[in-house]
Amino acid sequence: QVQLVESGGGLVQPGDSLRLSCAASGRTGTTYGMGWFRQAPGKEREFVAGINWSGANTYHRDSVKGRFTISRENGKTTVYLQMNSLKPEDTAVYYCKLVTAFNSYWGQGTQVTVSS
């Protein structure tokens, strides 16, 4: 059974930084990539950033480009999301996703709240 565990969320002020982590355990098999999504109250879940398995390619939604950076730890099924210059509109539950050859898996989510 594959499990994803996220950590690093919290309550911060506008302009602050946070670093989210997501570690996968279990037999993942062939992994295509990992990514971060978020869901704000009353809104649909949206893509934030993604990275392929080699780490050579990364993708970020326009609203976070220049502020968020996704990275992956070599040799491990662990992905990070460095979030700088946080804004109130970044407030959401952040979810990690792992995509393999035959399945995709979600973490339980971690709350990020940006408020003064």
Helix-strand layout with pairing:
Blueprint: E1 3-7, E2 10-12, E3 18-25, E4 31-39, E5 46-52, E6 58-60, E7 68-72, E8 78-83, E9 92-100, E10 104-106, E11 110-114
Parallel strand pairs: 2-11
Antiparallel strand pairs: 1-3, 3-8, 4-5, 4-9, 5-6, 7-8, 9-10, 9-11
Overall pLDDT: 94
The percent range for helix content is under 10%
Number of helices: 0
Q: Tell me about the largest β-sheet.
A: 7 strands, mixed
- Residue fraction in strands: over 45%
Judging from the principal axes of the Cα atoms, what is the shape? globular
What structural class do the secondary elements suggest? mainly beta
Radius of gyration: 14 Å
The count of β-strands is 11
Structure, explained:
This protein has 116 residues and is mostly beta strands. It is 0% helix and 54% strand. The model has no long low-confidence stretch (mean pLDDT 94).
For the structure shown, list the relevant keywords:
mainly beta; 4-stranded antiparallel beta sheet; 0% helix
Task: Put the structure in a nutshell.
By secondary structure, this protein is mainly beta.
